[in-house]
Amino acid sequence: MKRKILTLALLTAVFALLLCVGAAAYNAMPGQLIVNGTDILKAENNTVICGEGTAVYDSSTQTLTLTNATITVNYDPNYSSYCQSGIGVGSNLNLGLNIVLVGENQIITNNNLSNGIYVDSGNSGLKISGTGSLSITCNDGQCGIFSASNGGDIIIDGVKLDIRSEGNKGIGIQSMSGAVTLRNGADVSCICGKASIYGSSVTIENSNAAAYSTVINANSVYSFNDINITGSTVDCSSSGISIQSAHGNIAVSGSSVKAVSTASSALQTEYSVSSDFVPTSISITDGSTVTLNSCGIFSCAETCNLRVDGSSLTVVSDTDASAILAWYEIIFNDSTVKVYTSSSWVSIYCENGPVSITNSEVLSESNGYYAIYSWQDAVTITDSIVTALSNTPDWGAINAGDWVYIDGSWLVTDNGLQNGGTLSNSVLFEDGTGKAYGDAVLPGDVTLPEDYVLVLREDENLTIPEGVTLTNYGTIQLFGGRFINNGTYVDYGKTVDENGDIVNVIEGSGELPNYWFVTVKYGSGAADKVYNVVKGKAFTLPDAPGNSGYIFLGWRCGDVTYKAGEAVDITSDTTFTAVWGN
Q: Out of 105, 228, 267, 431, which could bridge 66 as a Cys pair, Cβ 3.0 to 4.6 Å?
């Protein structure tokens, strides 16, 4: 039985070889460079007519120049895929082919076995450059650009490239053992059935890439090793993992990246294949903006280590897993992070290591579980603004297997900390009610929502530092604590003392742009009072005060005397003085 199978396999291989050898017009066998069905190495003046354009080869520089070329591969079921690419580099040519584009060029394949450009093994790679453009359409075909094992790297250098290969086998750009690089302003669009960009490693540098994959479990960008995106714009979507490094790292620097997966992860690295285990990482740095959206069974963003530094990350997830999952470490530094999950899973979750948030603004919302959770380590929040919502009475918003450490931060939660924590010089809100722990200094601009109450008791102080704005729609009430404004305080709510009076209890030299100040002078030995009145609101005059031996006649302002309890519209800083009669 084994012998029969081996014989059949051998006959099949020989038959495929005979198909290629017999197909002179499409032959991409060893020693040949096929362009539009002709071996250009043997063509007169190394020139091939391609529609209304030309292809010219210079062997001294290994350069193939396409000028307004149209290359067509028609359907023929008798030829194998290796023998009928629009451009085919035969095996063992040791060729580093540079395709230079002039004008508008196109390759069209009408065979479900065809590739647009094929580089066989025994070559040193492919570069596409020039001032022109190239579109590749594979009608129910395979790869737009394919480099076989040991075929070398693929470099797209500063050109506009548009690939359409939407069949079940369709791949945009694939190098089996080499790197894929987009650089120097390349503008690449791939709409494919399977992976759009696939390589041993993938680099997108100062370029634009749009990668859309439509077949189930397809990737948009896949690399066996590292993926580096620098100074670029990347927009991709797929049903499988949208951007995936199988055994390397993903680094996004100074770039805008949008990744959507309709059935899996949007961004994912897996484990290193090194004999000495090295955790993989996702890093988002240098002002990058990354938006991830997923709907599947895996985490929207999954890796060993995740670091967001000086950047913005937004994750929207409808998965049956955490929106962000890291196995060993999560670090947010000097960044803005917004994470939403509609499932009852932890929104931001680290399995074995810490979650560290420093000098950042983080919003994390779950739908029935912790919003931020380190299972076996600590959660540390320093000099940050954090909103954490679990949307359930059963779970705290933040929890850690070790402990939660909060310093110099402003936290808004619906259910506080699950197992408690250490709070220093911070403000923590739990279900709308907040308090200061020590001398809290706002780490950045914050808003107190409507119906929220912040109570400052003795030894509980809040300072707005210079350059920072606190906008209040709720209530700040002092019960012995201090409220110091050295920045900007915008008050659309209430700022009151322990009796609920809207007297001026604000210290400091900061701006109060939303206030008129109303001074009430009693003239009876009682101390004057200064009230802060929100602009656009009326001020209700105090009740009639007492003064032994005198009759209260009203509150005078300018030439007008008002009754006690009367509401007066305030349009500037105003003084009311009590008028007394014998």
A: 105
Q: Digits of tens for pLDDT over the chain (582 positions)?
A: 223 223 323 323 332 332 333 333 344 457 899 999 899 999 999 999 999 999 999 999 999 999 999 999 876 665 555 557 899 999 999 999 999 999 999 999 987 778 999 999 999 999 999 999 999 999 876 899 999 999 999 999 999 999 999 877 889 999 999 999 999 999 999 999 888 999 999 999 999 999 999 888 889 999 999 999 999 999 999 999 999 999 999 999 999 999 999 999 999 998 765 556 778 999 999 999 999 999 877 899 999 999 999 999 999 999 888 999 999 999 999 999 999 998 889 999 999 999 999 999 999 999 989 999 999 999 999 999 999 999 998 899 999 999 999 999 999 999 999 998 999 999 999 999 999 999 999 999 999 999 999 999 999 999 999 999 999 999 999 999 999 999 999 999 999 999 988 888 999 999 999 988 999 999 888 889 889 888 888 999 999 888 888 999 999 999 999 999 999 999 999 999 999 988
Rounded Cα distance, 279 and 101, in Å: 41
Neighbours of 43 (CB within 10 A): 17
CB 250 within 8 A of CB 226: yes
Phi-psi region of 76 (alpha: psi -120 to 50; beta: other; left: phi over 0): beta
Q: How many CA atoms lie within 13 A of 15 on its CB side?
A: 7
Q: Which of 17, 121, 95, 107 is nearest to 69 (CA)?
A: 107
3-state secondary structure 316-357: EECCCCCCEEEEEEEEEECCEEEEEECCCCCCEEECCCCEEE
Instruction: For residues 216 and 482, give the distance between their C-alpha atoms in angstroms, rounded to a whole number.
Output: 60
Return the number of other C-beta atoms located less than 10 Å from residue 267's C-beta: 30
HEC readout, 90-155: CCCCCCEEEEEEECEEEEEECCCCCCCEEECCCCCEEEEEECCEEEEEECCCCEEEEECCCCCCEE
- Tell me the three-class secondary structure of 472-504, residue by residue: ECCEEEEEECEEEECCEEEECCEEECCCCCCEC
How many alpha carbons fall within 13 Å on the CB side of residue 243?
A: 34
Rounded-to-integer distance, Cα 393 and Cα 395, Å:
6
Let me know: does 184 contact 164? Beta carbons within 8 Å.
no
Residue 65's SS3 state is strand
Q: Which two tokens stand for residue 343?
A: 């499932």
Cα distance between residue 531 and residue 515, in whole Å: 9
Query: Smallest Cα–Cα separation from 67: which of 84, 50, 83, 45?
Result: 50
Measure the CA–CA gap between 395 and 417, rounded to whole angstroms: 9
Contacts with 550 (C-beta within 8 Å, 6 or more apart), sequence order: 524, 580, 581, 582
DSSP tag of 523 = -
Q: Is 332 left (phi over 0), alpha (psi -120 to 50) or beta?
A: beta
